[in-house]
Helix-turn-helix domain-containing protein
Amino acid sequence: MKKISEMESIRECSSNYILAVNDTINVIHGKWKAAIISSLLFGKKRYGELQKEIPKITPRMLSKELRDLEANGMVVRTVHDTIPVTVEYELTQSGYAFQHVLDVMLEWGLEHRKRIIGSTK
């Protein structure tokens, strides 16, 4: 994580702030990446386990999103020399560090849902 003074200087410059936010969005853009990362926060998973845990994701989309997350350094893919071949996915250090972002998203989502549902009554 960045030092507090460095974070304060980034917050004072809109272009640096926007750049950092865009970097984050570029890594997790799409409907499924946050769900995949969330699932992998609970430990290594095989492809089939991920597919069962994430409702409505197609096999093609899961494969694409896993490749993207791997390319962005969020997920590592391990192929075990077994018969049949076993492939496991797990989060990298950056992937686990992303839990802080997901926790904030969780809090915001719960509060937002409460406000919206409360305001429609």
